[in-house]
């Protein structure tokens, strides 16, 4: 009984030292010299591991074993140990010191790792999070900055304001992962300029491994959101010339506007029309007439497929450097007037094909200029930001630089000044 009391007293003593050895039996006293090192090593370790039991974790009811170990700190029955029980559970043998102590050993028991969910309070409902794609589409569908004819001429935004406004417009480019079309890379002039899937032009020929329906081109909406007024596309490549003419035939195109030279330091577009007559795939193209103007060249073409023949007007506007702007807005407005006055514009319901090299910079500027002129003429105001957003919904990256965006405002301000004065009320 004395041995049991000594062991309990040692566990309650705060971990400083074990109970006096004078209470031990004579047999154990004779082994003091050989066993003292074991108990000296084991005793503090045990007390260190069990001292956390004096403070049960917040929010948890004490475990029965914890109540017993805590002695007088609880209302539970006090701990009683018999000599027999003490003798049947001698101190453990010496174990090597551990370099890494596991979490459970540091805390003494996995009970301390339990959480009381009642203490967490109410859980807030999960709110919906808009993805970057949804944010992009929302901006492009809703953004706008209408300018009256007077404001565009007399109080236009500063170049700095226009640059900041332009940089906020999402580009809406397409990643290669979003365009699941095998082999399309061989038909793309620039690997980062891809057609947006929801509005891309699909060629209607028979599907096969050799020639699928792919062409780097998109349908573009026009004034007042009218569908398929334009087709914006890249400059044809050597292996896509027949695809280009197939698109012209399939979509019943009667007007092509080309806004690039064939070479501008490097190849920007291949010579896809004949000098006189040539065959591209199943299509035979002939030159019927050509007219040289100061800023552009107009060619009248015929395209024949089997027994049917159609007329196509081709306008080449070459005074526009890539990624830049023309020296003045006058030539661009004259090009827009040429398109407006062409009988081919209203001859067939087919879209107008517009291309530069990549099909987004100069192409976007021309289409935006024509839509802006139509808005000013019909409404006496123009929403240039809204126009660009609509274009980028249909084909990513339309209008490439802030300089082009500023030039677009300048061109439309010049056009607004050419309109007749509004009648007095």
From TrEMBL:
The keyword Phosphoprotein applies. GO terms for molecular function: protein kinase binding; protein tyrosine phosphatase activity. The active site is at residue 356. Its EC number is 3.1.3.48. Gene3D superfamilies: Protein tyrosine phosphatase superfamily. It comes from the Eukaryota. Residues 333-406 form the Tyrosine specific protein phosphatases domain. GO terms for biological process: signal transduction. Keywords: Hydrolase, Phosphoprotein, Protein phosphatase. InterPro entries: Prot-tyrosine_phosphatase-like, PTP_cat, Tyr_Pase_AS, Tyr_Pase_cat, Tyr_Pase_dom, Tyr_Pase_KIM-con. It is an enzyme of class 3 (hydrolase). Residues 162-415 form the Tyrosine-protein phosphatase domain. GO terms for cellular component: cell junction; cytoplasmic side of plasma membrane; cytosol; mitotic spindle. Substrate binds at residues 322, 356-362, 400. This is protein-tyrosine-phosphatase. The gene is PTPN7.
């Amino acid at each position: 009984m004395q041995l049991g009391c000594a062991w309990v007293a040692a566990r309650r003593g705060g971990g400083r030292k074990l109970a006096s050895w004078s209470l031990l039996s004579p047999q154990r006293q004779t082994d003091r010299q050989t066993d003292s090192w074991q108990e000296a090593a084991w005793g503090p370790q045990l007390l260190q591991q069990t001292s956390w039991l004096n403070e049960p974790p917040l929010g948890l009811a004490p475990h029965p074993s914890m109540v017993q170990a805590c002695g007088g700190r609880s209302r539970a029955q006090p701990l009683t140990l018999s000599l027999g029980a003490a003798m049947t559970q001698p101190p453990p043998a010496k174990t090597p010191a551990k370099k890494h102590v596991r979490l459970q050993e540091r805390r003494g028991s996995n009970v301390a790792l339990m959480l009381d969910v009642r203490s967490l309070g109410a859980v807030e409902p999960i709110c919906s999070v808009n993805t970057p794609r949804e944010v992009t589409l929302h901006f492009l569908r809703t953004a706008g900055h209408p300018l009256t004819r007077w404001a565009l001429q007399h109080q236009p935004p500063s170049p700095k304001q226009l640059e900041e406004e332009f940089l906020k417009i999402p580009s809406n480019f397409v990643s290669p992962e979003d365009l699941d079309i095998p082999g399309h890379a061989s038909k793309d002039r620039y690997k980062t300029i891809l057609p947006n899937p929801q509005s891309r032009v699909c060629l209607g020929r028979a599907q096969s491994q050799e020639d699928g329906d792919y062409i780097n081109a998109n349908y573009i909406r026009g004034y007042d959101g009218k569908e398929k007024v334009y087709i914006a596309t890249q400059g044809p490549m050597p292996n896509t010339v027949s695809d280009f003419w197939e698109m012209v035939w399939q979509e019943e195109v009667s007007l092509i506007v080309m806004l690039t030279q064939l070479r501008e330091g490097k190849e920007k577009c291949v010579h896809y029309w004949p000098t006189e007559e040539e065959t591209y795939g199943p299509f035979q193209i002939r030159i019927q007439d050509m007219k040289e103007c100061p800023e552009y060249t107009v060619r009248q073409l015929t395209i024949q497929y089997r027994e049917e023949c159609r007329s196509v007007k081709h306008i080449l506007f070459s005074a526009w450097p890539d990624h830049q702007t023309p020296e003045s807005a006058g030539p661009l407005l004259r090009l827009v007037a040429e398109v407006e006055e062409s009988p081919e514009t209203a001859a067939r319901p087919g879209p107008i094909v517009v291309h530069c090299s990549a099909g987004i910079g100069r192409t976007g500027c021309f289409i935006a200029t024509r839509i802006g002129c139509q808005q000013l003429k019909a409404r006496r105001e123009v929403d240039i930001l809204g126009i660009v957003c609509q274009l980028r919904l249909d084909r990513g990256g339309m209008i490439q630089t802030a300089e082009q965006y500023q030039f677009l405002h300048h061109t439309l301000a010049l056009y607004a000044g050419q309109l007749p004065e509004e009648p007095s009320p």
